[in-house]
Amino acid sequence: MDAEQIRQLDPLLREYLARFDDCFARGDTRAHLPVYIRGQLSNLDRKSVEPMALEAGVSVRTLQEFLSQHQWDENRMRIRLQEIVGEQPAVHQAIGIIDETSCVKKGDKTPGVQRQYLGCIGKQENGIVTVHLGLSTGDFHCLVDGDLFLPEAWDQDRERCRRAGIPDEVVYRPKTDIALELYDRAKHNGLRFEWLTFDEWYGSKPPFLRALDAREQKFVGETHKDFVAWIDPPRITHRPYRRGGRGRGRRTPRLVSGSPKAQTLEQLAKSHPALRDQPWETWRIKDGEKGPIVWNVKHVLIWAKDEEHLPTKQYHLLVCNNPLTGETKYFLSNAPPNTSVKQLLQVAFSRWSIERCFEDQKGEVGLTHWEGRVWIGLKRHLILTSVSYLFLATACQQLRKKKSRPDGLPDPCGDQRHRAILVAG
């Protein structure tokens, strides 16, 4: 947005930012919040601290200190952000989306930076990775939380962590653990998700799926073709087992001797009659820039291994094949057995909205423009960026009531042609 557009929305922006007043004990510190947010909403090419400060006519050093040194409660700001999101219409039908994003960084001072796989460029490079939780409901979507992925090499060098201001309690955690913490935090702050979805990296981790089962959270997540399961569950015996035929038997549940082994999803799709002989059902998922996007779909119920390698949990399996590209995707869901394929597909293909959030936050409000070297500065930047984007999303909703699409504002839904359609062919 340019300065004129921000001025037109100024009353709405002042009212919105006032809801975060109690995050600041001092008025002079609070005064920097609109400077930062207005800078992120501006049409500056680069939305790091220096150009935003110069544009606003304030000291660069002061705005840097606001981000990394001044005393204010960024955790309370995150709670308030999630409370505002919880006020959205139809939020009780929201889909939560777990994903990660990355950005290239030079040098070795940025917290968490190292040579690692960066999805933003599709290869190994020097950079940082952050894990995020998004929310989508109807025509509204936003990011509600995010956290830095701290590599093991950083965790093992606590002196390096201290130089970057990383507290000793912040340690290496698998991305799945970070995702669960983001989910638990949002739920604690009052957000509820009818569904959760994620990509195959998360969906291929059985402990992560079991953790969602334990939380009674419905999900539809993409998984890898090598995920193993049964379509016909083998029998389980509780008869005592005596090693070598001697001693007191153990009553540990186990598979009956000679039971068929679990197979990969790819093997099941090719060889098991329930999938191999099932005719494809064609679904028009959405419309893209080059026309309708369709997928051929097969559906079956499968049994996945639990932590004891027993078939005690039943999941939906969707095998989706793109007839134009030949790409095959596999989706798992713990929804009730009578859940419709249409409903499962609607959730499975809703991940585009978090990609749109990443695209807008990087391009519109400077998610990847942070240039600091202190962990608290990065943590605050992630929260402030979500605050800025939430204002855009809510402003678009309010302006949409007056006309079909607000001029000069990014549409939080993206191009309408990319929205889910879900029509059986």
Topology:
Layout: H1 3-8, H2 10-18, H3 27-30, H4 32-41, H5 49-56, H6 60-68, H7 74-85, E1 95-104, E2 114-118, E3 123-137, E4 140-148, H8 152-155, H9 158-163, H10 175-188, E5 195-198, H11 200-203, H12 206-214, E6 220-223, E7 228-230, E8 236-237, E9 254-255, E10 263-264, H13 265-271, H14 273-276, E11 281-288, E12 291-305, E13 311-321, E14 328-333, H15 341-348, H16 352-363, H17 375-400, E15 420-424
Parallel strand pairs: 1-5
Antiparallel strand pairs: 1-3, 2-3, 3-4, 6-14, 7-10, 7-12, 8-9, 11-12, 11-15, 12-13, 13-14
Helix pairs in contact: 4-5, 4-17, 5-6, 7-17
Salient structural properties:
single chain, 425 residues, alpha+beta, 2 domains, 8-stranded antiparallel sheet, 5-stranded mixed sheet, 17 helices, 15 strands, 36% helix, 24% strand
